[in-house]
Write a structure and sequence with these properties.
globular; 3 strands; three-stranded antiparallel sheet; 3 helices; disordered N terminus
């Protein structure tokens, strides 16, 4: 799914698609920590901007947790959910 900068409407659905992809990925590897670029590469997603927003949406929803090490943000599945 590609979202161009000129496209309007239904952007939330695109985030939902990417959020589902990310959650399925983290379900396979629940105890690992990944940076955004590693997740994008593993899911063969060329849209790093939308994937980054999907990761942040999952963090704000409490599904993922994030930590910063050496200036790089890492994501992992939240243990509480």
């Amino acid at each position: 799914m590609t979202i161009s900068s000129g496209q309007t409407g239904n952007i939330e659905y695109a985030y939902d698609y990417y959020c589902q992809e990310v959650l399925q990925f983290f379900r396979k590897y629940p105890y690992c920590h990944y940076c955004k670029r590693a997740v994008v590469h593993a899911l063969n997603s060329g849209n790093i901007v939308v994937m980054g927003k999907a990761l942040e949406k999952l963090v704000s929803d409490g599904m993922l947790s994030s930590s910063c090490r050496n200036g790089v943000k890492f994501y992992t599945l939240n243990e509480k959910k």
